[in-house]
Amino acid sequence: MLIRRPRRSDVKPSEITSESIYRRRREFMKAAGTIAAGSLLAPQWLFSRTLDDLEQLRDLGELKPSPYSTDESPNSFSDITTYNNFYEYGFGKDDPARHAPGLLRVEPWSVEVTGECEKPGTYAFEDLVKPHRLEERIYRFRCVEAWSMVIPWVGIPMVNVLKRFQPTSRARYVEFVTLMDPEQMPAQRRPSLPWPYREGLRIDEAMHPLSIFAVGVYGKEMPAQNGAPIRLVVPWKYGFKSSKSLVKIRFTEEQPLNTWQQITPEEYGFYANVNPEVDHPRWSQARERRVGSFFRQSTQMFNGYREEVAHLYRGMDLRSREYW
Ligand SMILES: Nc1nc2c(c(=O)[nH]1)N[C@H]1C(S)=C(S)[C@@H](COP(=O)(O)O)O[C@H]1N2
Ligand SMILES: [Mo]
């Protein structure tokens, strides 16, 4: 089934009206003493390109707030959509915003599910998302390059989606693969990376309540440059773990090889948990630059999600290369 909706290329980074409204409403709701951040989606008429353009998605006006959200101030819509890593569109931070919106076709979109599960198959994007209530998750996001942002994602807990595929007892890891299509992703014509981009998680990491499939930011559907129409977000890990524009989910028994580990295993591993005490071989990870702010700030263990996730790594020496 093909659903008509406006192309994401219509979302311009300069289109920040909705963001200021969002912020104002947030302030207002805070003042009014409510914590229902998720209900702060502006009325439909305020947005030209909101998630409710996804006609088939359910109850978008009821975007669910989450206790996992930080109350740190989110970066601007402009920061989030013009300073990106999406090497399929080039290595420059502004390349994705310049090229992805005009080239990436997200309609129709489907995700192939394979490997160790009872319900493999090809799922239309709409069918993947429709049964779930969308949540707002305002997360810290830390790139291994030592910059960070706070991003108000819209998404679905990954566990809720993965459970539907009924992973078998042999499924110990999950692999997440990005679209491979040099027509839509021109840098794939060159072997700058071993395409397609792929990442993986241990199954318990994927099932952790903080892990989400994100389908939007700031209450709008996902901009192309951020990995439309669906990408992972795993906030306690370095940003490279979150594959964009997802087309394949594979349950595996063996630990999958992720793109960056494949290219430079001496620099990147599989786990990539944010850790201020383990430096990158070429730079320190102790501090980070919050995009838009002048001063550097300390990086927190597990990007500030230690309480939630430390138990996943009990007994592992996180300094050892094996767990980089
Ligand atoms: N397919 C794909 N996914 C990707 C990347 C990429 O180059 N290609 N870059 C990763 C890196 S290094 C980061 S920091 C984040 C950036 O996400 P953002 O642009 O939405 O902030 O996407 C990650 N996912
Ligand atoms: Mo990154």
Features:
single chain, 324 residues, alpha+beta, Sulfite Oxidase, Chain A, domain 2, 7-stranded mixed sheet, 5-stranded mixed sheet, 12 strands, disordered N terminus, binds ligand MTE, binds molybdenum atom
Topology:
Blueprint: H1 17-31, H2 77-82, H3 95-103, E1 110-115, E2 121-124, H4 125-129, E3 135-142, E4 147-157, H5 158-164, E5 173-178, E6 198-202, H6 203-206, E7 212-217, E8 220-221, E9 231-233, E10 246-252, H7 259-263, E11 287-290, E12 296-298, H8 306-309
Parallel strand pairs: 1-10, 4-11
Antiparallel strand pairs: 1-2, 3-4, 4-7, 5-6, 5-10, 7-8, 7-9, 11-12
How would you describe what is shown here?
The protein has helices at residues 17-31, 77-82, 95-103, 125-129, 158-164, 203-206, 259-263, 306-309; strands at residues 110-115, 121-124, 135-142, 147-157, 173-178, 198-202, 212-217, 220-221, 231-233, 246-252, 287-290, 296-298. It has one domain (17-263): Alpha-Beta Complex (Sulfite Oxidase, Chain A, domain 2). A hairpin with a 4-residue loop joins strand 3 (135-142) and strand 4. The strands form two sheets. Strands 3, 4, 7, 8, 9, 11 and 12 form a seven-stranded mixed beta sheet that branches. The protein has a five-stranded mixed beta sheet with strand order 2-1-10-5-6. Helices cover 17% and strands 20% of the residues. With 324 residues, it is of the alpha+beta class. The chain is globular and about 45 Å long. The chain contains eight helices and twelve strands. The structure holds ligand MTE and molybdenum atom.
